Structures are given as C-alpha cells and as structure tokens.
Amino acid sequence: MGQAQRSRTRDSISVISGSSSRSRTGNSAQRRRGGGGERVRQRSKNSGGLENLELWEISRQPGSSRMMRLADQEQVRYGQRRACANLRTQRRGEDNPRPISSARRRKARKRRLNLYRLSVFFVIGVCLILIYQTTGAVYRMMHDTKEGKGRGIVEVVSEKIEENRIQPPPITVDYLEPNDFSRPGTELKKIKSVFVHYTANPGTSAAQNRSYFANLAETKERSASAHFIIGYEGELIQCIPLEEQAYAVATRNEDSVSIECCYLDEDGMFTQETYDTLIHTLAWLKQEYHLSADDILRHYDCGGKKCPLYYVEHEDAWEKLLADVERYKPEKTEEAE
Questions:
Q1: What global pTM score does this model have?
Q2: Span 119-133, pLDDT tens digits
Q3: Torsion of CA 123, 129, 135, 137, to 10 degrees
Q4: Which tens digits make up the pLDDT trace of 217-262?
Q5: ω before 308 within 30° of 0 (cis)?
Q6: Of 194, 195, 196, 187, the residue nearest 285 (C-alpha)
Q7: Average pLDDT, the chain
Q8: Helix, strand, coil tally for the chain in percent (to 5)
Q9: Rounded to whole angstroms, how far apart are CA atoms 264 and 203?
Q10: For the chain, which residues score pLDDT lower than 50?
Q11: Domains of the chain by range and CATH?
C-alpha cells in the first residue's frame, strides 16, 4: 500500500523550466485527469521567462498528492519591489549625502559647545571679580593709615581670637622663697587636673595664709602650700609658679595645680567674691591647659579628705560650680566694644 502511494507521488511531479514544461513520467493521461497540469502550464506561461527561480508547491486536490516545482510570481514581484526600494534609497543618499537627522545632531552639539563656553567665561569672570575685591580689601586693611584703622590684617585676626579667649583674673604674684617645706622647686612637667581646697581657718585672709606657707620654712612643722590663694574678698595671690610643684595633694603633686580658698563661716561656704574669682580662675586654667570639667576636682576626690568642706557635704553645690565653669564667658571691656 505504501509503495503504491509513493509511486503515485513520483508520477505527479512535473518540472517547469523557462516557458515550457516537460513530464518526468510518461503518465500524461493521469496528469490531465487530475487537472493539475493545466494549472502548472498556466503558471509556466505567467512566469515571465524566469529560468533559474524554482519553488515547490504541493497540490492538495482530493484523492491526489502531487508535488510540482514552479516559479512563484508573487515572490518575484516582492523581490522586484525590494530592489526598487533599495535603488531609491541609494539615489536619495547620493542626492543628499548628509541626512536631516545628522544635521540636527550637529546643530545640537554646536549649541551645547557654545553653552559650555559661555559657562566657562562666566565662571572665570566671577572668579576674577572676587579676586579683585578680596585683594583690594586686604590691601586697604594692611595699608589704611586713617585714624583708628592703621592696623594690619594679622593684628585684626589676633584681636578677634583674643576676644574669645579667657584672660586670667587680676593676680598678685608673691612667690614663696624656695624651701623644703612649701616650695621645693620640683619641676611640674604636665598639668592634668586642678584641685580646689579650703584653708580650714575661717576668717583668715589670703595674705595671712600665704604667710603661713612661708613660715613653714622656719617652723618645719609640716609640708604644705598651693599655687593660688583666693581671699574672701575675691583677691588672688599666686605663691608658686605654674612650672613648679606645690605641696597640696600628696599623690598628685606631680601633675596638678592647687587653689586654696578662704571663707568666713564654719560650714566652709565661699563668699560670692571668692566664688566668682574661683570660677574665673578655673575657666582660665581649663582653657590654658586644654582640660575639661572632669579634670576639676576636690581634694576630697583624691584621698577622701573633707576639703573643701561645704562642697563635699553639698554635692549639688559642687555640680553647680562645675556647670558655672563650663558656662563662663569673658566679659567684654569698653575698649573691645
């Protein structure tokens, strides 16, 4: 059954070449009965003499399975249309070698370049104006000889810095004579803390307590001293240079500064004048030696001695003292204003 079907399929194939058709099989009667031959010949006549274009077509008539090779006229026309389109495109390119889109891109690029140049010129101009104005201001500041304006730029900048610095309070310098009991002369290489003390002698002045330290060289009863003594009227006496150690806190003399404070009442509370001078002195030392509020200590904090008495028994008063040191600002003089 399959062999007979394949035989019929081979018999239904015809070849078209040029304008004539020849039968590969000798069975012309079957080709005429199937009606396929007429269509093949008709397509052969309409092929327009295309000798080299060969395509396959399958005839799908009922009861017939034919395969023929023929020239497809529609595909030939499609190829001709594409060739004409390509030819027109080539001619358009020859007539206009620079398409419109390319010209637009060139114009846009040129506009961007001009905008960039204008921006550069604008920035350069602004910089030159700023340089000119700055140079003129510096020149006038350095060479202005008018009254009250004859200061140079370095002096002006230094003055601005000094306005924000805390100046030391008024100090009466009255150093002790070197001795083994109050001024040993040992070098103080670094300052890490500032200790606050009280004199433990109510009603005594700063000068009296300074004399007490000086007399220790004669009495030799004990070793004691401090760098500063603040009186109950706010006066400040310096007994030992800040480059030397004092006999104040046994375990911390090598890296600390000590301040003795006078008082009037038995509870050890400082007068307002003593308090104000102490705050100013602590703020100044804190600035000079780059310390913090944590570096300001009571004698009590190193050894447990109740000194200064009032600020050991009243922790809130001590915390307020430290806060006042942090908030301290230098007072502006009339000349600075």
A1: 0.54
A2: 898 899 899 998 988
A3: -130
A4: 999 999 999 999 999 999 999 999 999 999 999 999 999 999 999 9
A5: yes
A6: 194
A7: 78
A8: 50, 15, 40
A9: 5
A10: 1-2, 8-71, 145-150, 333-337
A11: 2-75 (no CATH), 127-164 (no CATH), 172-327 (3.40.80.10)
Helices (DSSP H) in the chain: which residue ranges? 2-11, 28-34, 36-45, 73-95, 100-143, 153-164, 206-219, 272-288, 309-313, 315-327
| Beta-carbon contacts of residue 193 (< 8 Å; ≥ 6 apart) | 252, 255, 256, 257, 291, 295, 296, 297
Question: Is residue 161 exposed (0-12), middle (13-18) or buried (19+ Cβ within 10 Å)?
Answer: exposed
**Three-state secondary structure call for residue 195:** strand
**Residues in the chain, overall count:** 337
Give the integer Cα–Cα distance in Å for 238 and 215.
16
Provide the 3-class DSSP secondary structure of residue 260.
strand
User: pLDDT digits over 272-310, tens only?
Assistant: 999 999 999 999 999 999 999 999 999 999 989 999 999
